[in-house]
Amino acid sequence: MKIIDGGVTAAKGFKAAAAAAEIKYKGRTDMAMVYSEVPCVAAGTFTTNVVKAAPVKWDQDIVYNHPSAQVVICNSGIANACTGAEGYGYCKETADAAAEILGVAADSVLVASTGVIGMQVPIDRIKNGVKMMAPKLDGSLEAGTEAAKAIMTTDTKKKEVAVQIEIGGKTVTVGGMCKGSGMIHPNMCTMLGFVTTDAKISKKMLQEALSEDVKDTYNMVSVDGDTSTNDTVLLLANGLAENPEITEKGEDYETFKAALNYINTTLAKKIAGDGEGATALFEVKIIGAESKEQAVTLSKSVVTSSLTKAAIYGHDANWGRILCAMGYSGAKFDPEKVDLFFESKAGKIQIIENGVAVDYSEEEATKILSEEAVTAIADVKMGDATATAWGCDLTYDYIKINADYRS
C-alpha cells in the first residue's frame, strides 16, 4: 500500500468542485460536488438514529434500490433534518437540477447535508450552487481539497486521504474526505464521509466491505455522546482501474479491504482529533480481552467518559476515572488484574499494575499527556482480543461552540 496526496479526486475518473452558495455561511464555500465520468456501483452506511434527515432517506433509497450512482452533492450549514415532506422534496429538486446540467439520471445523484437541524434549506441557493459547480468540475487534487473544505461546519481543518494498491497487476486508488467535529458518537458518529475508488468490484462486495469496516473505524469514534440525524458514509467505485472484477472474497478482496480500512481509520482519527474545542486526540486501546465484543465495550466506555476526557484536557493521569469507566461498561473483567499505560510521542509510562498504582512520576505522566495525541492502553489479561476507540479531550471551548451554534 502506498500513501499518496489527495482525497476524492485521487482515483481515476473522479472530479470535484466547490461553491459559495450562502446556504448559511458567508465568505466561504459551503457546497461540494463529486462526480464520476462513468456510473459507479455505490455502497453506504447511515445513522442509527431513529430521527433520520431527508438526505439519509434519499441516499438509502438510491444505494439499496438502484444499480448505480454518479454524483454526490453536499451542503454545509443546514442539515435538512426534521423537515418533513418538504425537505425530502428538496432532495429530489437538488438531484433533478444536477441531472439536468450533468446529463445523468436523477436517481444516480446522492445528496448530503450537515448543519442546523429543523431548518428548511434555501432550495434556490442549493440549485444555484449546483449550477455554479458543474462547470468547475475538475480532477485535480486541488479540486478535491476545495470540496473537503466546503463540507466543513465547526471543523477546524479539512480531512482527506488517499492510497494506492495493486490488484491483478493494475494500480487501484482509494481516496476519501469527511467532515465531523461535534455531535459525534459510535454507531455512525455525526459525520459525512465520501470515499471514491477506481476499483472494479461488485456492488454486493463493495457494500460488504464498507459495512464490515465501519465497525472498527467510524463506529469507534466519540466526541460528545450525541448520535446525529445525518450520519452518512458513501463509497463509490467506477471500475476505471480495469482490475479483474472483485466478485467474491479472496486475496484481491482482502487487499481492497486493507486500503479501505486505512482510509476510514485515518478519517475517523481526523474526526476525533478535531472534536469541537479539542486540544488532543484521545485513543483508548484495550488489549488482552476475552472477546472482540468485550474489548469494544470497554474501549468505548473509556473514550466516552466525560470525567476521563476532562482529565486528558488537564494532562492529569487520573487513572481512577479510566478504571471506573471500564467498571460501569457492563463488560465482565477482574479489575485486580488490569495493567494501564499512557503513551504519546513523549514516551510511555505504566500507571497501574494488577489494579493498583505503581510508583510512577507524575511529572513524566503529565509530559506524556501534554501531546496532541495521547493513548491509554489497558490490558485486562483475559485473552488475545483487542479494540481501539478514538475520542478527544473535553474543553471549555466545547461548551462555547455549542451554546450558540444556531447564531
Automatic annotation (TrEMBL):
Gene3D superfamilies associated with the record: arginine biosynthesis bifunctional protein suprefamily, ArgJ beta chain, C-terminal domain, L-amino peptidase D-ALA esterase/amidase
Key words of the record: Acyltransferase, Amino-acid biosynthesis, Arginine biosynthesis, Autocatalytic cleavage, Cytoplasm, Multifunctional enzyme, Transferase
Catalytic activity: L-glutamate + acetyl-CoA = N-acetyl-L-glutamate + CoA + H(+); N(2)-acetyl-L-ornithine + L-glutamate = N-acetyl-L-glutamate + L-ornithine
Metabolic or biological pathway, per its Swiss-Prot or TrEMBL entry: Amino-acid biosynthesis; L-arginine biosynthesis; N(2)-acetyl-L-ornithine from L-glutamate: step 1/4; Amino-acid biosynthesis; L-arginine biosynthesis; L-ornithine and N-acetyl-L-glutamate from L-glutamate and N(2)-acetyl-L-ornithine (cyclic): step 1/1
A GO term for molecular function: L-glutamate N-acetyltransferase activity, acting on acetyl-L-ornithine as donor
Membrane-spanning segments: none
Site (Involved in the stabilization of negative charge on the oxyanion by the formation of the oxyanion hole) location in chain: 114-115
CDD domains the UniProt entry points to: OAT
GO terms classed as biological process: L-arginine biosynthetic process; ornithine biosynthetic process
Active site: 190 (nucleophile)
Main enzyme class: transferase
Coiled-coil regions, chain positions: none
InterPro entries (alphabetical): Arg_biosynth_ArgJ, ArgJ-like_dom_sf, ArgJ_beta_C
Subcellular location: Cytoplasm
Primary residence: cytoplasm
EC code: 2.3.1.35, 2.3.1.1
GO (cellular component) term, any one: cytoplasm
Record text on subunit structure and interactions: Heterotetramer of two alpha and two beta chains.
Function: Catalyzes two activities which are involved in the cyclic version of arginine biosynthesis: the synthesis of N-acetylglutamate from glutamate and acetyl-CoA as the acetyl donor, and of ornithine by transacetylation between N(2)-acetylornithine and glutamate.
NCBIfam families the record matches: ArgJ, PRK05388.1
Annotated family: Belongs to the ArgJ family.
Protein name, as recorded: Arginine biosynthesis bifunctional protein ArgJ
Native species: Blautia wexlerae
Underlying gene: argJ
